[in-house]
Design goal:
Blueprint (H helix, E strand, L loop, with lengths): L1 H24 L38 H7 L5 E11 L5 E11 L2 E8 L2 E8 L2 E6 L6 E4 L13 H5 L6 E9 L2 E9 L6 E7 L5 E8 L2 E8 L18
Length: 238
């Protein structure tokens, strides 16, 4: 009887060890569990909501920011950004900005106050100079370079609350397949929409409405993903 009891105890111990190993390595790992997956270019079905891919997912106010956070932003590129302001009762203004980016250094060039202004953010320093004026202003800078494009920054976008987001999905904007997100600014009450490229992770456009009236729009050309000339990121006299 003692030998039989001993065998029974050993068998139970082996069974218990097997159950523990199985739980550690296999339980909670469902191979069919869907994550936040994004479409590849060309998969937009025109509905602005769904796509058909390896894992089907509908973006909504609860998961759109997680999807945008997963996009990988291109590190080196150049593009042209157009910013339009619309005035009450009609009329408005438009500005065109040339943008070059290389591994964290950003240069923005455009017309400002009758001259051509250059803004460079590089190595924790902000440089500003004008083509027709001697001298370069410089100062330590830790803010987002997106502000110099007069656009919503990624940090501001990802800090939104799901309660402020009214809709989300997929659509085409400025020639690119994009994730879009529509939200209300809790401070101003304005309605906004942003469009982020699925393939490059870059902001392709943004719009702001005061009620039903469009008051702001920015949109980017399709980015050129080659590395810009290094000289573009050196201020005059450097």
């Amino acid at each position: 009887m003692r030998r039989r009891s001993r065998i029974t105890i050993i068998a139970l111990l082996i069974l218990t060890a097997f159950v523990i190993v199985f739980a550690l390595f296999f339980m909670g790992r469902d191979p069919n569990t869907a994550g936040v997956s994004l479409p590849s270019p060309g998969q937009d079905d025109g509905s602005g909501e769904d796509y058909t891919g390896p894992e089907r997912i509908t973006l909504n106010p609860d998961n759109v920011l997680a999807a945008i956070a997963e996009l990988e932003r291109a590190e080196s590129y150049s593009c042209t950004v157009t910013v339009e302001d619309y005035w009450p009762g009609g009329g408005g203004s438009s500005a065109e900005l040339q943008v070059w980016v290389d591994s964290g250094s950003v240069r923005v060039r455009g017309q400002q106050g009758g001259g051509t202004r250059n803004v460079l953010v590089s190595g924790g320093t902000l440089y500003i100079w004008y083509d027709a004026v001697a001298g370069v202003f410089s100062a330590p800078y830790s803010g987002s370079s997106d502000r110099w494009l007069r656009s919503l920054t990624y940090e501001e976008l990802l800090d939104l609350s799901a309660e402020d987001i009214s809709s989300a999905g997929y659509t085409q904007y400025s020639g690119a397949e994009c994730v879009y997100c529509r939200f209300t600014d809790p401070l101003t009450g304005y309605s906004n929409a942003v469009y982020v490229s699925v393939s490059t992770g870059l902001l392709m456009g943004a719009e702001t409405w005061d009620g039903g009236e469009l008051i702001y729009r920015m949109y980017s050309s399709l980015p050129e993903l080659s590395r810009p000339d290094a000289e573009l990121f050196s201020p005059p006299g450097a």
